[in-house]
What does this fold into?
Amino acid sequence: MTSEHTLSGSKPLPAGSRRATRFAHNADTTPWYVYAALLAFAIGAPFVIPAYTTQVAFLWLMILFALTWDIVGGQMGYNSLGNIFFFGAGMYISAVVQVGLFTDVGTYTSARGGEQLVLDHGDYFYGLVLGMGAAAIGCVIFALILGRIVFGLRGPYFAIGTLGIALSARELTGTWEWIGGGSGIAMPVYPGLPHEKSVVFYVILFALAALTFLCVRWLYSTRFGLAINAIRDDEEKAEAMGIHTLRHKLVAWSVSGFFLGMSGAVFGNMTGFVEPLEVAFPTVTFGIFMVVMALLGGKGTLWGPVIGATLFHVIKEVTWTYLLGWQWVALGLLIVVNVVFFQEGIMGWLQRKWPERFGITVDEGMSAGAAGREAAR
Amino acid sequence: MSPSPMIEVRDVSKSFGGVQANRAISLNVPAGKITGLIGPNGSGKTTLFNSIVGYHPIDGGSIRFEGREISALRVPQIARLGLLRTFQQTRIYSKMDCVRNMLISVPHRNAGFTDMFKGYSAEQKDKAERLLEFVGLYQKRHLVSGDLSFGQQKLLEFAMALMNEPKVLLLDEPTAGINPTLINGLIDRLKRANEEFGITLLVIEHNMRVIMNLAEHIYCLAHGEMLAEGDPDEIQNDQRVIDAYLGAH
Amino acid sequence: MLDNLDLLLIAPVLNVQLLLDGLFIGAIFVLAAYGLALVWGVMNVKNLAQGEYVIMGGYFAWHLGTLGIHPVLSIPIVFAIMFVFGWIVYLLVIKWVITRDLFTSLLATFGIALMVQQGLNLAYGPEVRTADSGLGTHSLFGGLVTVAEIKIVSFVLCVLLAASVILFMKTSRMGQAIRATAQDPRAAKIMGIDTERVYAFTYALNAAICGAAGVLVAMVWVIQPFYGVVHSIRAFVIVTAAGLGNIPGVIITGLGLGVAEQYAGFVLGAEFQQATALTLLVLVLIWRQIQLAKHRMVVQ
It folds into this structure.
């Protein structure tokens, strides 16, 4: 143990490497080959299994859903049931921007799809990029405004409040005639072949999911990551220690909104048609999937949402059609069983089973071992 | 009394519904000293603590910290000014390990918006480990703090408070629930925190031996009112204090 | 869109229609909200499946109606079925989440809600249904105001049901045990109350009350497998606005919500009727937050 004391004593650590000056307390210890394999799969999938391009693209979307839910729900402990709001809001913002760039939105929607917006490649992608940007920014603004309302709420009120926001957005969108009301808006037509379209959106969704992952991975390694964990563990204590809790909560919620808004914009273009009930604010499908996937994989972990989303998506794709209409009941059952009997999720279970693999120390013997490794290095 | 007290409480009253928890309480916490606050159960000590740190609004009176009125400020704002409290029911971030508990407790006094996206410097990490060593938790620094014993959690909470570099630390019953054999070590650490780090302390304590050993000046509350004040000897021999504790009231 | 507002001024008797309809439907909301407050207060479980139990009761009444049983007579049957159902749900799920954190119970009941609504959808299909009572309609003010007899019957039944539940809570042994457990479960346990059974009974009673309310909904209004969510939200709005354990508050807020929905539906258009409950939820939450911010407390 003496070696340990000199390690932390008056003698500072050799500050030779740059890493020493930036102590990564939440370092991602994932081996490189995991990333390499994922990247290889992502690039290879459209070539090796072209028939499943759309399904895999949906997988990236699901991963994005689970990751963004977990920022607020898992890492910060504010369990939202209304994150789908950002998805729908982003979708509608991008729809209005993409249509509004080329024609009058009111006349376009009042034609009830009688008019189709056909654009050339340049205009289409110009509109798409602008729409995605507007969706992201718009959702961050929504997050900042709504966050001030909902983050005063704790526990059940937060969950119900967010659910209420998503549901009322759905109802109100359905009554807003300018953006098409209940009958929705047709998005600009993709200027190209269907296969080309599916590959293009595959690439965009993968890039978006990868960006989300890298962003949350970086966020969790900063003070921000520790602060939202602190809020999860004991918010009152965090306040008593002077942490800017509202600021952190708003940022976490905004990051969620940023990526979800963009994913909504992409999804709207993918389906080609935006409508409040099934496409933009699917509270009972995507809205719940987000929660289930994060819980299944293990909330509050970096990889949990990814694993949960993958597992859920694969199971869903394989079994969905064989369940003969019982799939939704099965989904409800999955939630109940998951929440009641397997709340730690897959990552949580793995961490409990083999804690040392995840850098978690469980007793003093472990601590000595870790210290020995540290000293040897 | 020193010229400018760190905390100056004047005529503070607080009632909950019909219950008057504090009635026109006044006290001074001089800079650099250890001040004690005692009183029988239900005498309003914790209520006064909560009023000082901004946990609830006060009904009347004034609370000044370094000459600045703070009775209208909220908990995090007051904490950022350098007035920190620990909890009677120890509160730590139970799912994080000790080092992380320490790191997240760095002062947020001047934290700008972009600071939240920074990492921690080697000095901060070093300081966290030295403070853990100071309270005797260095060996357990990588344990999840929720797995520590109650006494160890109390020590961790104390170390976290020191990490925050407060000017004043309000301790709510620091020795409650701690193994009696460890109490002397804790008193020693509190004194060292006061002397070496220059932190002013205001301590609520039930254990008479502890508070007489620790504090230079003691206030005694009873039934929500200030009953007596003085140095430990005066308090110990004050008939009113003895009566209050023996229930002669 | 606001033409109807003028209509209200031109023909003030229309207000009578809206008020009556609002009160009749609001009385049913009160039942579900009371059940929610009961479960919330006694076992600290926020039951998100509240509205689904209402709809479930409604479908049972509709089903019994197709077998030739009048909806009014089906109330005791549905009450009993839902009581047993609630007890079973308690044993299978709720029992395991009582001591856990808030979100566990919330999500677990959310899962139950999903299973119930989807199960109903499989069993009865997505059509909007009404349990036919075969009663006539009265016209007042020369036909401007119509009052269906069934609405009056429903209102009377509603009051009777609420009164008997409150009487049960006040006088019966079980009712007293429930109230004791709500105040301090540990003390209740020490005093020999079987808290497990109290919890099971409370949850079952809640399901039964909701089921009975559902029968009334099916008689005077419409049911559909996915209408449960809004009923849940309504119950939460009422309980949040009135506060736990405030029965007069729950009654007044419930009736008020019913009236508010009728007015919003009439003035703004039928599509706004559902949105009203949701918008009110958000407003109530904001209002609560402002109130609590004054006292520097958090909504727990």
Observations:
- The beta strands of chain C are 137-140, 145-148.
- The two ends of chain C are 40 Å apart (CA to CA).
- Chain C touches chain A through 47 residues (CB under 8 Å).
